[in-house]
Amino acid sequence: MSKIQMNVPLVEMDGDEMTRIIWKMIKETLLEPYVELKTAYYDLGLKNRDNTGDRVTIDAAAATKKYGVAVKCATITPNAQRVEEYNLKQMWKSPNGTIRAILDGTVFRAPIIVDSIKPFVRTWKKPITIARHAYGDVYKDVEYRVEGPGKAELVFKPEAGDEHRETIFNFKDKGVILGMHNIDRSIVSFARSCFNYALDTNQDLWFAAKDTISKKYDHTFKDIFNEIYEKEYREKFAEKKIEYFYTLIDDAVARVVRSEGGMIWACKNYDGDVMSDLVATAFGSLAMMTSVLMSPEGYYEFEAAHGTVTRHYYRHLKGEETSTNPMATLFAWTGALKKRGELDGLEDLVGFGDKLEAASIKTIEAGIMTKDLALLSNLPEKKVVNTEDFLLEIKKRLDNQL
Ligand code: NAP
Ligand code: MG
Fold first, then answer.
1. Structural contact between residues 24 and 15, judged by C-beta atoms closer than 8 angstroms
2. Ligand 2: distance of its center to the CA of 71 in Å?
3. What is the pLDDT of residue 359?
4. Residue 19 C-alpha to ligand 1 middle, in angstroms?
5. What confidence tens digit (pLDDT) does each residue in 124-171 have?
6. Architecture of domain 1-110+291-402 in CATH?
7. Does the CB atom of residue 49 touch ligand 1 within 6 A?
8. Contact 190, 209 (CB under 8 A)
C-alpha cells in the first residue's frame, strides 16, 4: 500500500515526559506506516527550550503563522522544583502562554465521546465545546484591602480630555476593592475566533455574560459579539443553518444541563475557567479532552487538554509499565492532519484522520482500554492494557478499515 502524501508541512511541537513518549509511539505505530509525514519539527522539550533560551517556542509559533496548522505535545511549565530538576537557566514561561500571545487565539476544548462512557448528565449526547476568553478580567486585576473608613473612587485619566471620576463606595469600616479591565481588540478577536470555529465545525454558538447586572462591562462584550455577528456572520450562519445567540450566564448554565450538547459555549475568562472544568469532569476524564487554539486569522494549533502526566512518567523511568491514555494526544494529531488535508484539498488525508479516530473509538467500544477509562466505562467486559498495546489494538482496527 502506498503512503498518503502531504504537500505542506504540519508544524510539529514535541514536548515532555510521558506525553513525549506517547508522541513517539503514536507516530511510529499509527502515522508513519500510513502517511509520508511532512512536518516542520520543533523540540519544545524543556531541555531544548532551556538550551535555546526559549527561542524554539517563538520559532514554533512563527512557523504556525507560516504554515497555518500545528500539533503540540504537552509541555512542562517550569516552577521552582523544575528549575532544580532540569538545572534550568531560568524559570521559562508557559509555552502555551507564549504561543497564545503570538497567535492571539482562543482555546476550544471538546471531549471525545465514546458510547460506553456515559456523561454524568444523562441528556448529553454530543460534545460540548467550551471557548474561553483568555485575556483580562479578574486574571489581570488590581486588588486592595481596605483597612478602615474612607472613600473608594474609580478614576480614568485620558491622554486628552477631562478626567473621569466615580465613587465606588464610601467605606465605614474594613472591606475589599477590585479593579479590572478588558480591551475591545481582545474581545473582537475572541468573538471572531468563536464565530469562525462555529462555521468550521457546523455547531451553534452560545455566548453568555451578565449584562443585566454589569451594564457597561459585560454589556460591552455582548454588544461587540452582536455587532460582529450582524455585520460579518449572520448570513454565513444562515447558510450553514446554525445559530448564534446571547443569553445570561445563569440561563446558559440551566440550558446547557438540559441540552443534548453539540454546541460551542463561549465564556468570559472566569466563567470559562470554571465551566471547562465542570464540563470536562461531567464528560468523564481529562484524558479524553481535546484542545485547539484558533487564531482570528485562522491559524490552528491542536493539542491534548491534559499535561505531561508526570506521575506516570516517573513510573515509566523506573521501568514500570504504565497505562496512560493516548486518546487526546492521538486526536490532536488526527485533528491537525484533517485540518491540513482540508486546507490543502487532500481528501485521503482527511479520510485517514477520520478512520484513525473511528478505529480508536471502536477499540474502547470493544472493551479494550487504558486504566483510567476502565473506571468510567459501563461495559460488562473490560480489558485493561498498557499504552503500547492499546495503540496496537487501534492499529489492528485501522488496518481492517483501510
Ligand atoms: P496532568 O499531566 O494532566 O496529570 C494529572 C493527573 O491526571 C495524572 O497524574 C493522571 O492521574 C491523570 N491524567 C492526565 N492525563 C492522563 C492520561 N492521558 N492518561 C491517564 N491519566 C491521565 O497534570 P499535572 O500532573 O498537574 O501536570 C504535569 C505537568 O504537565 C506539569 O509540569 C504542567 O506544567 C504540565 N501541563 C502542561 C499542559 C500543556 O502543555 N497543555 C497542561 C497542563 C499541565 P493519575 O496519576 O491518578 O493516574
Ligand atoms: Mg481552572
1. no
2. 23
3. 98
4. 9
5. 999 999 999 988 898 888 999 999 999 999 999 999 999 999 999 999
6. 3-Layer(aba) Sandwich (3.40)
7. no
8. no
